[in-house]
Specification:
Helix content: under 10%
Number of strands: 11
Radius of gyration: 13 Å
Structural class: mainly beta
Order of helices and strands: EEEEEEEEEEE
Shape: globular
Strand content: over 45%
Distance between the termini: 37 Å
Length: about 120
């Protein structure tokens, strides 16, 4: 599967943004785990959110209550709705998938395919 992330840009603190991850080559419905990670300059890639199956979701504490992950199998697309963004949310955001669910959904090494990333910059 090829993943194409989009929707990043420059926003102000408190704004909202929706990231999309379009899949091609294979349907997302065949994947049990879909996720978003991010990497800020000079930092390690970190877990943001994951969705298991159709609706079970998991979030990093830093984004819980502000971000929402969702999938639309009919559009073969994964989304990340980002509300009330903060300057510390500035990073390149990557979408990723894994065929079978793994309890270590927060571990980037457990995913199979990655998109190219989309940059989100939040100004204060």
């Amino acid at each position: 599967v090829q993943l194409q992330a989009s929707g990043g840009g420059l926003v102000q603190a408190g704004d909202s943004l929706r990231l999309s991850c379009a899949a091609s080559g294979r349907t997302l419905s065949g994947y049990s785990a879909l996720g978003w990670f991010r990497q800020a300059p000079g930092k390690e890639r970190e877990f943001v959110a994951a969705v298991r199956g159709s609706s079970r979701t998991y979030y990093a504490d830093s984004v819980k209550g502000r971000f929402t992950i969702s999938r639309d199998n009919s559009k073969n697309t994964l989304y990340l709705q980002m509300n009330t963004v903060k300057p510390e949310d500035t990073a390149v955001y990557y979408c990723t998938v894994r065929l079978n669910w793994n309890a270590q959904y927060y571990n980037s090494g457990h995913y199979d395919n990655w998109g190219q990333g989309t940059l989100v910059t939040v100004s204060s």
